[in-house]
Amino acid sequence: MVQRLLAPGEIEALDHNAIPRLLLPQPRSLFAARAARLRQLAKNEIKGIPVGETLRGYLLLMAALVDAQAAVAHALPAETFALPDAADIDVSLEHNMPPLPVSGARPPSWRAVFDALLDQLDTLAEGQPQIAAVLAELRGLESAELEGCADAVLAELTDSVHPLHAPFVAAALQVMWTMRAGQLDAQRVQPLVTNTLCPVCGAHPVASVIRIGGQSQGYRYLQCSCCASEWHMVRVKCSCCEHTSRIAYQSLEPADASDAPESTSKANDPSKVARAETCDDCRTYRKIFNQEHDYNVEPLADDLASLALDLLVGEAGYARASGNPLLWFNAE
């Protein structure tokens, strides 16, 4: 029997079918896992992502916020997270548009998610006047102000949103979009014209991750900053401009690297848990986390905790391709 050689186009078609193009979120476990990872990071337990004392308190605050997200995801009735009409979803998919776009009108029920999230955080505010003041300010926002803040958060307009308000508004929007994304049929969602935006909602990725296990073994996925969906993008390709010729990887050297015994193992290398993928064509970077070197990597949490890497890469002249929804800076 003679084996027929496959043409390049046929190989691409096989790869397209074999690689899971889209991994939809499992929100009822995602938020709990994210909160646990944030607490690990705050304790400086992750060798590849050193965390200083100045960041520890913020990571613990965000862990409490993510706990509140998990509680709201479990507590609110299913109709809060109802999908758009099937006909509207069909039209979006037929035209390679995201079925749950972050642009345009939002489901009014997102406000119920926002209110429930603030209620969950009341206990956290006890004895912490700064947190209590921020929650009071958020509750005091007029409807138009809150919707304007949500618009700015989804559009990543850092100069148009209060940096202390933004993470809480972003957290409510994350719950809304993640719960709805988890209900979609991954096989029906089509890639967008650009692979640099989420095919589910059209938001930017927060980071990328190399997954292990099953059909996803060794493949790189971008994780959406809003709905937490993950979509496949080939490795050594800029997730901002999609060029491939001038990609490099920057990482933090572990403090005890010189004392560590040399190992022939390709796994569990702390320097490869978190790296910045830089592109000299567009001069941007986005972080990439590797499950092969830390099974419990969580892109959003790990991105938030690895600010030291941001500082170093920024000093080298690269700009972040997109932000982290749980950390905002104003123009100053």
TrEMBL record:
Keywords: Cytoplasm
Any one GO CC term of the record: cytosol
CDD domains hit by this protein: FdhE (cd16341)
Main location: cytoplasm
Domain FdhE C-terminal: 236-327
Superkingdom as given in the UniProt entry: Bacteria
InterPro entries: FdhE-like_sf (IPR024064), FdhE_C (IPR056796), FdhE_central (IPR056797), FdhE_N (IPR056774), Formate_DH_accessory (IPR006452)
Record-linked Pfam families: FdhE_C, FdhE_central, FdhE_N
Gene3D superfamilies referenced in this protein's UniProt entry, alphabetically: FdhE-like domain (3.90.1670.10)
Phosphoprotein recorded as keyword: no
Sequence ranges assigned to domain FdhE central in this UniProt record: 197-235
UniProt similarity note: Belongs to the FdhE family.
PANTHER family recorded: PROTEIN FDHE (PTHR37689:SF1)
Function: Necessary for formate dehydrogenase activity.
Protein name, UniProt field: Protein FdhE homolog
